[in-house]
């Protein structure tokens, strides 16, 4: 089908156009047009296929030999063509907002063989828009803010809506904005959607109303009647500006504080309110006037914006009982656009000081005393002083905290606080003493205070200087006169103000004056020099040089130190080669190592002797039972055969007496009891005297009299009782001494009541009774 020879016929089967005129009256036919577009109205609501147009080719002579074929977007589904006539239809309703146009291709082919009679022709089907979409805003809810007290026309925010209809076709997508809720505070520009304030600063006060809800409407068809509309909500908040000064909640505040309150402690809180919020509500408090400017201070709690009144100096009820302060509050960040710099508020504070029983107060926070180390016991070295600050002026007594003076070197007079010595001092042992003195009220001992006392012990020249170490040197046999053989120095535990100055000299009684000399170097050292040439090692191998060391202080102290000099053989350079063994041992005896070795040997020998003696004395005792596992197979041999009850010499037979009889006649064994304490013991049963027990009775009576008369005998309570089975035993005591009944007196009928296990015994003993 040649595009240049297409036939376009815009026909309709009785449908109306936009102007309401029947399309059958507008049928037209043109040949040779360059027609490439068809138009179709969207949202078709008819029941039949919607007619689009007619395709015709010059090759179609009406004899039915050609056939029209359609291809492209939606061909065969959305769009269909009559293969014989070339009529083009749409099978369903289309939405321009989903797809605004479709591209199709048409071709004429031979119906018999399907061969194309001319090339394909491409054309477009465009959809005509109708106003079927309402405007849509970008957000359902907008949030905006504007400072309070803004001027009329201040920009707030902008809203935007979109219409899916075709902007190029009519006014379906032409929008107009209007405000339906939010009058008279805000307005909106119809074309742009910009929202602005509509009232002046005095009407836009956040403290009166902070939040506003504005409803904006967008309408298409340029806002004309019949247009579709969409709405959105804009929540507008007024932000705060600093347009309100702080105000105190009350004009006068009253607080009371004890006089013993520590510096920096809280006295009270005051509050001012500000209608603003956030940074605009921050405030500062200051003390501007009053008689307590230097006693109290005030600051701001940044969390609560309260004024915190605190103590800057100690209080004293006896000096001042109350204070009056004037406090000022103002914004920390004032805005001169809304408030003047003088926007502030004033309040008064009255602070009452409460009287408290205070502990004594020392005149100083610490005391430093000095005393010479040679001060006598009882010497007063200084004093401390404390007074009761209360009006009553209670007397004060003093004492020393013995935890700080464990050795009780110092004492204090309770009445006046004078500190004195109780023991001698030694600066070389302790140069400083730190003690604590306690002051206590007489009327209220719970009120105490303490003060540190630092006592410095001044040095006194009470120690003589001594040689710095034990000096032992040598002199060569070939030494020349004036040769220095040793340099010595001294030490002194004293600490003079000007430093030490030691003087060295040879002791007058020294027997070696002709051999050696001492030369003072003037720097607290001295040199030992030879005074003659040549020393004989064989003649005298050791020399002892006595040196006197003295200090130059008052009183002068001195001591004598001995220097040991051995005579040795030396080489040409003066190096020692050999000394006599006599020289090594004559002055100092055996060497330290030898003495230690000898002492260790002696100690080891002593330990061996002691150990041997202890082992020899110790007797090895065999255990009665060798194995703990099985005691039945062990035979214990005591090697002692007792004599029975007749053997009265082996043990105290008095221990075998029946305890019931002994209990009735308890006597003290350490004193001689009176005769009245020996009444005849009562018997619980009739005792049958026996001829064979007379000797036992006599023996017991004799022993009782001997023990009662012996003052060194142990008390009765120390005796142990054996061979007794308790009061619950029918057999009672196993000893014949306590047995007073015979076999004939026993009744064994109870055995028959004990069950089948005792039946044999019951027959045996019960039978004998029956026989009798």
Automatic annotation (TrEMBL):
One example GO MF annotation: beta-catenin binding
TM region(s), chain numbering:
594-615
List the InterPro entries.
Cadherin, Cadherin-like_dom, Cadherin-like_sf, Cadherin_CS, Cadherin_Y-type_LIR, Catenin-bd_sf
Q: Which CDD domains match?
A: Cadherin_repeat
Q: Which residues form the Cadherin domain?
A: 57-137, 138-248, 249-362, 363-467, 467-584
Q: How does it sit in the membrane?
A: Single-pass type I membrane protein
Q: Which GO terms describe its cellular component?
A: adherens junction; catenin complex
Q: Which Pfam families match?
A: CADH_Y-type_LIR, Cadherin
Q: Where in the cell is it found?
A: Cell membrane
What Gene3D superfamilies does UniProt report for this protein, alphabetically?
Answer: Cadherins (2.60.40.60), TCF3-CBD (Catenin binding domain) (4.10.900.10)
Predominant localisation class: membrane
Keywords, A to Z? Answer: Calcium, Cell adhesion, Cell membrane, Cleavage on pair of basic residues, Glycoprotein, Membrane, Metal-binding, Repeat, Signal, Transmembrane, Transmembrane helix
Q: Biological process GO terms, please?
A: adherens junction organization; calcium-dependent cell-cell adhesion via plasma membrane cell adhesion molecules; cell migration; cell morphogenesis; cell-cell adhesion mediated by cadherin; cell-cell junction assembly; homophilic cell adhesion via plasma membrane adhesion molecules; morphogenesis of an epithelium
Purpose of the protein: Cadherins are calcium-dependent cell adhesion proteins. They preferentially interact with themselves in a homophilic manner in connecting cells; cadherins may thus contribute to the sorting of heterogeneous cell types.
Spell out the protein name for this chain. Cadherin-10
What organism is the protein native to? Cyprinus carpio carpio
């Amino acid at each position: 089908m040649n595009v240049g020879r297409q036939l376009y016929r815009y026909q309709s089967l009785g449908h109306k156009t936009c102007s309401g005129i029947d399309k059958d009256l507008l049928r037209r036919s043109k040949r040779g047009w360059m027609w490439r577009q068809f138009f179709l109205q969207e949202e078709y609501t008819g029941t039949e296929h919607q007619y689009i147009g007619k395709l015709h080719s010059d090759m179609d002579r009406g004899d039915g030999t050609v056939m029209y074929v359609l291809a492209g977007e939606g061909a065969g589904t959305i769009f269909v063509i009559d293969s014989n006539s070339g009529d083009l239809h749409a099978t369903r309703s289309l939405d321009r907002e989903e797809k605004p146009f479709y591209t199709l291709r048409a071709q004429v082919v031979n119906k018999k063989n399907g061969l194309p009679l001319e090339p394909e022709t491409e054309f477009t089907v465009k959809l005509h828009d109708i106003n079927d979409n309402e405007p849509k805003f970008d957000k359902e809810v907008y949030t905006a803010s504007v400072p309070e007290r803004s001027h009329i026309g201040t920009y707030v925010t902008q809203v935007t809506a979109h219409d899916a209809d075709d902007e190029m076709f009519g006014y379906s997508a032409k929008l107009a904005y209007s405000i339906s809720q939010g009058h008279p505070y805000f307005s909106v520009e119809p074309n742009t959607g910009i929202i602005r304030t509509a009232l002046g600063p005095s009407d836009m006060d956040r403290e009166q109303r902070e939040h506003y809800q504005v409803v904006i409407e967008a309408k298409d068809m340029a806002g004309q009647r019949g247009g579709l509309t969409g709405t959105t909500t804009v929540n507008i908040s007024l932000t705060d500006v600093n347009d309100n000064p702080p105000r105190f909640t009350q004009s006068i505040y009253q607080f009371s504080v004890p006089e013993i309150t520590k510096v920096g402690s809280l006295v009270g809180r005051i509050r001012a309110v500000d209608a603003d919020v956030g940074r605009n509500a921050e405030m500062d408090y200051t003390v501007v006037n009053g008689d307590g400017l230097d006693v109290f201070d005030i600051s701001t709690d940044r969390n609560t914006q309260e004024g915190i009144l605190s103590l800057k100096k100690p209080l004293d009820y006896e000096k001042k009982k109350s204070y009056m302060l004037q406090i000022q509050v103002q914004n920390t960040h004032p805005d001169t656009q809304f408030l003047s710099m003088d926007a502030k508020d004033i309040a008064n504070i009255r602070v009452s000081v409460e009287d408290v029983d205070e502990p004594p107060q020392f005149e100083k926070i610490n005391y430093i005393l000095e005393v010479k180390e040679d001060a006598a016991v009882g010497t007063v070295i200084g004093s401390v002083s404390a007074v009761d600050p209360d009006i009553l002026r209670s007397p004060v007594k003093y004492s020393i905290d013995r935890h700080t003076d464990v050795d009780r070197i110092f004492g204090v007079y309770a009445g006046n606080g004078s500190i004195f010595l109780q023991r001698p001092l030694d600066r070389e042992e302790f140069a400083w003493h730190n003690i604590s003195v306690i002051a206590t009220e007489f009327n209220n001992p719970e009120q105490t205070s303490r003060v540190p006392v630092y006592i410095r012990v001044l040095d006194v020249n009470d120690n003589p200087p001594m040689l710095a170490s034990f000096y032992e040197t040598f002199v060569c046999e070939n030494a020349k006169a004036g040769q220095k053989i040793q340099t010595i120095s001294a030490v002194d535990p004293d600490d003079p103000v000007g430093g030490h100055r030691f003087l060295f000299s040879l002791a007058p009684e020294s027997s070696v004056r002709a051999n050696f000399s001492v030369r003072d170097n003037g720097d607290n050292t001295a040199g030992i020099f030879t005074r003659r040439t040549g020393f004989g090692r064989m003649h005298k191998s050791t020399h002892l040089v006595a040196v006197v060391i003295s200090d130059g202080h008052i009183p002068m102290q001195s001591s004598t130190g001995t220097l040991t000099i051995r005579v040795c053989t030396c080489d040409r350079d003066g190096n020692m080669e050999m000394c006599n063994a006599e020289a090594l041992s004559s002055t100092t005896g055996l060497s330290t190592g030898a003495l230690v070795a000898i002492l260790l040997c002696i100690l080891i020998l002593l330990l061996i002797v002691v150990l041997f003696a202890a082992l020899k004395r110790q007797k090895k005792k065999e255990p009665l039972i060798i194995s703990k596992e099985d005691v039945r197979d062990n035979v214990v041999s005591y090697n002692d055969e007792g004599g029975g009850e007749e053997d009265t010499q082996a043990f105290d037979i008095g221990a075998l007496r029946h305890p019931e009889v002994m209990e009735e006649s308890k006597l003290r064994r350490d004193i001689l009891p009176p005769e009245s304490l020996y009444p005849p013991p009562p018997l619980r049963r009739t005792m049958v005297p026996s001829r064979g027990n007379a000797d036992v009775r006599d023996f017991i009576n004799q022993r009782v009299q001997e023990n009662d008369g012996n003052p060194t005998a142990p008390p009765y309570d120390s005796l142990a009782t054996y061979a007794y089975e308790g009061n619950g035993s029918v057999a009672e005591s196993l000893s014949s001494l306590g047995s007073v009944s015979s076999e004939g007196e026993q009744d064994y009928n109870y055995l028959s009541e004990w069950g089948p296990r005792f039946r044999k015994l019951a027959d045996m003993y019960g039978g004998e009774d029956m026989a009798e």
